[in-house]
Amino acid sequence: MNRWFRWQGFVAFMGVTISICLVWALVVDPVIKRIIEKTGTKIVGAKVELEKADLSLFPVGLTLFGLQVTDPDEPMKNAVEIGRIAGTVDSFQLLRRKVIVNEMSVEGVRLGTQRIRSGAISKKTKKGGKDKKKGSVPGFPMMKMPDIQDILGKENLQTVQLVQSIRRDIESGKELWTKNIAGLPGKEKIDGYRKRIEALKGVKGSKNIGDIGGILGAAGDAQTLYKDIEKDLELLQKSQKGLNTTLANYKDQIAKIEKAPQEDIRRLSEKYGFSAYGLANMSRFFIEPGITAWVDRGLYWKARLEPLVERAGQKKGNVEVVKPLRAKGSDVRFKEKEPLPDFLIRVAKVSVQLPMGDFSGVVKNITPDQNILGQPLLFAFSGEKLSGVRSVRLDGAVNRVSPDSPKDSINLRLEGYKIQAKSISQDSSLPLTLEKGDADLELKAVLAKGFIDATVAANLQGVRISAGGADAKSGIGRAVSSALSGVSTVGINARITGPADNYQLQISSNLDDILKKAVGSIIKDQVAQFENKLRAAISDKVSGPLQEAKGSLGGFEGLGTEVENRISQLTGMQGGGVQKQSPLGGFQLPFKLPGQ
Fold first, then answer.
1. H helix or E strand, kind and range, residue 547
2. Are 509 and 456 a contacting pair, CB within 8 Å?
3. Closest CA to 152 of 268, 278, 262, 275
4. 556-578 as b/e, with b when 16 or more CB fall inside 10 Å?
5. What is the DSSP string of 548-563?
6. How would residue 329 be classed by pLDDT, with cut points 50, 70 and 90?
């Protein structure tokens, strides 16, 4: 036995094996952990932390434990916390430098969990989801007259912008026309015509008046002079017409600007609730903030997670150059017979733990190179008989198969959601609380090429709404409180459309008619008062610049007078000096000069 079993070799083998295991445990797993934390932190903009990473060789796979992703807006909270992520890697594809995971399990997903330490990475972390494209919706309409000067201080008036624009146009137009008129026939040329006319008149006293050559020469000079004057006259008249058209256009624009304050009044009245629109659509003041917050939040996280589904790259001939998700430089991808992405998770089975219960679902085709795979990312989640909600269905797609035509879609259906003590208006003058109710909600949304198109339909049964605050006992507040106390059913329909960074939200509800009947007669006088004050304030703000714009037109009138004077002089020469006067005296030629 001693012949084939050597202790020296066995000890050496065990030493090498133990060394490899130690290196694997002490180096490989920590390196993977740091890579995941660094890359995730860069994508999210807040700390991504991992408790442990375990890379196995037989079979090849990776298991992650305790993944925490900080909420950039609330660094003391995790946006998501995952207990365990495990998946096996296709060994053959790994030899081709491709990470292909056929199936992955994601367990113990929790949302909004508290952190022990802040996950902020810089002072800029809080920025993002909180920076809305829209200002916050004001409180319940017409409860309190807003300060007019405060409104004008923070709003961009269309009227002011138009006045500034027309003033710039007038100044540039005046400069252009001044140069044009300077190049037209002027005093020097007109004086030259006068001298030529005097020279022709001198032929009358010539001693060679009987010379037929002299006569014909004088006639030819007269005809040439007439044509020269006619040519310059046409040029001046054409310029005069263009100048008058420009001046009339500026006057027309100023006249329209004088009416523009009405558009500003309408827009600001609607925005601050003091309008017929605000009266007919009062429910939006406590429905819109919630919808806007959810839309902005969704768009924010969509932008944050974009690198996971779309990688920067460009075509160069038959190869594609892409930017790696991690590290520097570029990867050159050559054409393959059976192309596969460099990274792909075919199926991820996910379990989500929420206070209301557990959800389960699947996510398919996770890759930043969908154009190579030819399939979009798909997801579907569901939950039944949960605490406080009967059922939830969520599904959608993130489509980057054609990078030039990105399209995302999501569908949500929620049934039997129990509402308890939900604040729907935090206006201190009249706070409103939805004490209870059962809600069914359906959401359908598509985001394609940067444009969003979404609909929300909600039906609430068994509703009870209460109003508080000092204003709930008098005037409008009492009328609103009384009207809402009798509401038991609420229907809400919303439509979100337009560019993702400047979308428009339209809301309708049966509460509109209820509130309009309750307070309509009370607030009509307030609407008129608000509009009158706004009209006067806008007029004061734009009257000075508008008068300056009108004064600038005086320069055009001066230019017009100059052109008219030149035309008058040439017309007088043409009529009195050339057309009516003949250098031949009483002798008649066998033809007539122009104008005779």
1. helix 511-572
2. no
3. 268
4. beebbebbeebbebbeebbeebb
5. HHHHHHHHHHHHHHHH
6. low
Rounded CA Rg of the chain? 41
The amino acid that residue 37 corresponds to is: E
**Are the beta carbons of 81 and 324 closer than 8 angstroms?**
no
What is the band of 348 on the pLDDT scale with cuts at 50, 70, 90?
very high
pLDDT band for position 131 (cuts 50, 70, 90): very low
User: What phi and psi, each to the nearest 5 degrees, are found at residue 395?
Assistant: -150, 165
3-state secondary structure of 165: helix
62-71's contacts with Cβ under 8 Å and 24+ in sequence apart are: 62/32, 62/86, 62/87, 62/89, 63/87, 64/36, 67/36, 68/113, 68/115, 68/119, 69/40, 69/44, 70/44, 70/46, 70/115, 70/119, 70/120, 71/46, 71/112, 71/119
Non-local CB neighbours of 157 within 8 Å, separated by 6+ positions: 264, 538, 541, 542
Selection from 481, 462, 431, 351 nearest residue 83 by Cα: 351
Identify the residue whose tokens are 């729907």.
424
Q: Rounded to the nearest 10 degrees, how much is the dihedral formed by the CA atoms of 561, 563, 568, 570?
A: 160
Structure tokens that stand for 464 in this block: 């009870």
DSSP state for residue 4 in the 8-state scheme: T
Q: What pLDDT, in 10s, does the model give residues 534-544?
A: 888 888 877 88
Whether 410 shows a pLDDT value over 90: the answer reads yes
The reported pLDDT for the residue numbered 581 is 45
- Residue 258: predicted pLDDT: 78
User: Given this model, what pLDDT does residue 4 score?
Assistant: 58
Stated as kind and residue range, the H or E segment containing 437 is: strand 432-448
d(CA 102, CA 428): 55
At 49 the pLDDT is 93
Written in H, E and C, the secondary structure of 323-335 is CCCCCCCCEEECC
Beta strand pairing status for 343-354 and 99-114? parallel
